[in-house]
Design goal:
Layout: H1 13-16, H2 36-40, E1 43-45, E2 50-53, E3 68-71, E4 74-77, H3 93-101, E5 104-108, E6 113-115, E7 123-129, E8 132-137, E9 143-149, E10 154-155, E11 169-172, E12 176-182, H4 183-190, H5 193-211, E13 245-248, E14 250-259, H6 260-265, H7 272-294, H8 300-303, E15 309-311, H9 319-328, E16 335-338, H10 340-353, E17 359-362, E18 365-370, E19 373-377, E20 395-401, E21 410-414, E22 421-423, E23 426-433, E24 438-451, E25 457-464
Parallel strand pairs: 1-21, 15-25, 16-19
Antiparallel strand pairs: 2-13, 3-4, 5-12, 6-11, 7-10, 7-12, 8-9, 8-11, 14-24, 16-20, 17-18, 18-19, 20-25, 21-24, 22-23, 23-24
């Protein structure tokens, strides 16, 4: 038998491939995501590059979160943030620093009862780290949760002014660091006439405004229900904000360079320039969605008002937690937005309770829902500051949005009709070819986002994604 390696009974596949044309794909892009937020947001064409959100005038300012810095075992309050407490809203910066210095740091273990229900309240509490639960005994003897306090929340400011206030039960749900201002120290501060007068003036001003405002802090429109007779009708008007918020369009830009030799010689079935533009545009869109959520000026995570932020009760995202979000955004909620791992964690909690969430198809893809509202995935909602990092040990946030101008919701902003537009708000302009035979194209995207009213968006914080359940099955 011949052992000659060139002896074949037919043409070898190696040689045959020299006559075959390979079927090639366009370049695959692992960084590409569905970008559901971009698809689900209603987009508004912004004329002139500025979008002004006019609202009714607010007479009563909302309370804010208190800024806290933790250095080892010691916590410090950002003095200026104390203006988020109505009691201190009229104090100057120097006095605020004096007040901030009077807060004491307390550390409490998980499950510690900080105050018993019915005790006379004597402290102002600010949560620096962890979670506290305020509860009372209800009319039927059950313990009812009154409030859940996360980082930056406060409680007990009324106790500094009124001797007769009783405290609810205050218990830690995690290890917690709390800053407290004792009534005795506050009384010592009030002995200074300037501080006492500033506090009194601020509280009197707020009470007077509250008497003329609705539950949202807007001036009441005077109306009268008439059944008969000829009563004198009230007169009224609707006042507007004098300095409304303006959103300026932001720009994502890059210059795409391609050698003319490449585009001329190697563009047969697949156009090299088109693929370079496609992949660059994909990167622009991915970065845009990240900015829509995380930008420090207009990102949706930042735009959530303090009153619309809540922590999870136990860490994992439970049906109860999502119900709390629905209670905040109850006027036509559109969708939840969460990291895929957070959605998986919610699914595990539903399975544990025996309430598997139903699914709905959007754009041909299935989404799980809660109370009929879909949970939409986005890896731009970070876990411990990273898209795919942190494994299952990190925490993240879940958003709930109402969308559309007509619903006073969240809208995307863009400028259409720009030169070289390849899709709304995104343009590719030829910039010329240099002496090195390199052609340049300017890729530009103009965009932003706006929250029209505070109750259009809510945020669930401290969402743990690494909680799993073990099940014991009968044999």
């Amino acid at each position: 038998m011949s052992t000659n390696p060139t002896s074949h009974l037919s043409l070898s596949t190696t040689a045959a491939r020299n006559l075959a044309t390979a079927t090639v794909t366009v370049p695959q892009n692992a960084a590409r995501t569905p970008r559901w937020l971009h698809k689900l947001l209603p987009w508004v064409d912004v004329d002139g590059g500025v979008y002004r959100v006019n609202r009714r005038k607010i007479l009563v300012d909302k309370t804010g979160l208190i800024g806290v810095e933790i250095d080892g075992r010691k916590a410090h309050i950002d003095a200026k943030s104390l203006r988020g407490i109505p009691l201190f809203s009229g104090l100057d910066n120097e006095t605020l620093r004096t007040v901030a210095a009077e807060f004491a740091t307390e550390h409490h273990d998980l499950g510690k009862v900080i105050a018993k229900e019915g005790d006379v309240a004597k402290k102002l509490y600010v949560v620096a780290r962890g979670k506290l639960e305020l509860s009372i005994v209800g009319p039927h003897g059950d313990r009812l949760r009154q409030e859940l306090l996360g980082e930056g929340n406060y409680f007990g400011d009324n106790a500094l002014l009124d001797d007769g206030i009783k405290t609810p039960a205050i218990r830690t749900l995690t290890d917690a660091t709390v800053l407290t201002l004792d009534r005795t120290k506050f009384d010592a501060l009030k002995r200074k006439a300037a501080i006492r007068d500033a506090i009194t003036h601020a509280l009197d001003k707020r009470r007077a405004a509250q008497a003329r405002a609705n539950e949202y802090g807007e001036a009441v429109i005077d109306l009268l229900t008439v059944q008969g007779g000829e009563p004198k009708l009230p007169t009224t008007f609707v006042d507007y904000e004098e300095d409304p918020r303006e959103y300026h369009l932001n720009t994502i830009q890059t210059v795409l360079q391609t050698h003319t030799r490449v585009t001329d010689l190697y563009s047969n079935k697949i156009d090299q320039l088109r693929e370079q533009v496609r992949l660059t545009v994909e990167a622009v869109k991915e970065w845009e969605e990240w900015e829509l959520l995380n930008n420090p000026d207009f990102g949706l995570l930042r735009e959530v008002a303090p009153s619309q932020r809540i922590p999870t009760r136990s860490g994992p995202p439970t049906p109860d937690d999502l119900d709390e979000l629905l209670g905040l955004v109850w006027k036509k909620p559109a969708f939840f937005l969460a990291h895929p791992k957070a959605i998986a964690a919610f699914g595990r909690e539903c399975t544990r309770r025996g309430v598997p969430p139903p699914t709905v198809n959007i754009f041909g893809s299935p989404f799980i829902t809660w109370r009929g509202v879909p949970l939409v995935p986005s890896d731009k909602l970070l876990i411990n500051g990273r898209s795919n990092g942190g494994g299952t040990l990190g925490s993240t946030s879940i958003l709930l949005l109402r969308v559309g101008e007509g619903e006073q919701g969240v809208v995307g902003l863009q400028k259409t009709g720009v030169t070289g537009e390849v899709e709304p708000g995104l343009s590719v302009r030829y910039m010329g070819t240099n002496e090195n035979s390199i052609a340049s194209h300017l890729v530009t995207r103009y965009f932003s986002t706006a929250v029209l009213t505070d109750d259009a968006i809510a945020r669930l914080d401290n969402v743990l994604v690494g909680h799993y359940h073990d099940y014991v099955y009968p044999r």
